[in-house]
Amino acid sequence: MILVVGGAGYIGSHLVKELVEKEEVVVLDNLSTGHRESVDSRAIFVKGDLGNEEDLDMIFKSYPIKAVMHFAANSLVGESVTDPLKYYENNVAATLTLLKVMTKFKVKNFIFSSTAAAYGIPTVEMIDETTPTAPINPYGHSKLMVEQILADFSKAYGLHYVVLRYFNAAGAHESGVIGESHDPETHLIPIILQQLLGQREKISVFGSDYDTKDGTCIRDYIHVTDLAAAHILALEALLEGKKTAEVYNLGNGLGFSVKEVIETCEKVTGKQANVEMADRRAGDPARLVASSAKIDSELGWKAQRNLEKIIVDAWNWHQNQRY
Ligand code: UFG
Hints:
By secondary structure, the chain is α/β, with parallel strands linked by helices. 38% of the residues lie in helices and 18% in strands. It contains 10 helices and 14 strands. Helix 1 packs across helix 7, helix 4 packs parallel to helix 5 and helix 8 crosses helix 10. The structure holds uridine-5'-diphosphate-4-deoxy-4-fluoro-alpha-D-galactose. Uridine-5'-diphosphate-4-deoxy-4-fluoro-alpha-D-galactose is lined by residues 75, 77, 115-117, 139, 168, 186-188, 191, 203-206, 217, 219, 258, 281, 284, 288.
């Protein structure tokens, strides 16, 4: 049985939908940002908190958990700057409680959702896992602190782990049954699609004077179903004992500017966006593009879905959003 912490969130719920085809799954989520409706009905759902030792004891006593996949976190860069306590408490301290209880119950396998924010403002075109980590906000720090804790637990207690550093997760399940739903929404693609649906007046482009081809920020957008597939490969590698302590980037290896993303949304939907140029948003690096060569060569993972497919699936979801 696999415990998925944060399995009612955007990325966690997409992973659960794939994982239930192969394994028995228990989801733990406090529903602070997740949605109960997004959890596949084949998974057991427990409403509880990963920072609460009693909730965790109950789960590890009740179910034969062989691995934990941890998606539960706060993930807004701006909020992390104004409220770092929330980020260190929920992302670091609560994760430490989870790892403590796992150690107590001798559960050895762990998959952790990390982020491109671990790299800060990189100076290389293609970021690989050897690129120095240098977060520029508490969110990135909180994720990197957990990475450090995992490395130390691995050496001291024999924990086996895989860290996955996501670039820009986007898109929705092809079925249209689950997708991205944040409140407030801050991510580019949902904001564009909401504007095209008439749910927002305009799209603000945060900065058009960056040192990039058209002056807007470049990101590497990765389909949430491709992310889910990478988690399943990482889980298999852990369970088969092929990997014991690894970090992988997950991206498409292609950078798209904010303007290009808006244009692709217009093309996919056949609608015209209402766009205004605005000031830069604090903490945005000009360019974040991943090399995922390491996970390709070691686990045979490659992103299968391009930006257009991401937007087609997201559009399908947003037109009939269920939660
Ligand atoms: N953007 C706009 N207008 C908007 C929203 C976003 O111009 O209304 C721009 C941003 O400035 C950025 C790009 O679109 O240049 C993408 O922004 P997102 O907010 O969609 O994503 P981020 O790249 O800021 O954030 C993602 C993850 C974070 C992670 C971060 C790492 O969502 O969890 O990458 O830098 F921390």
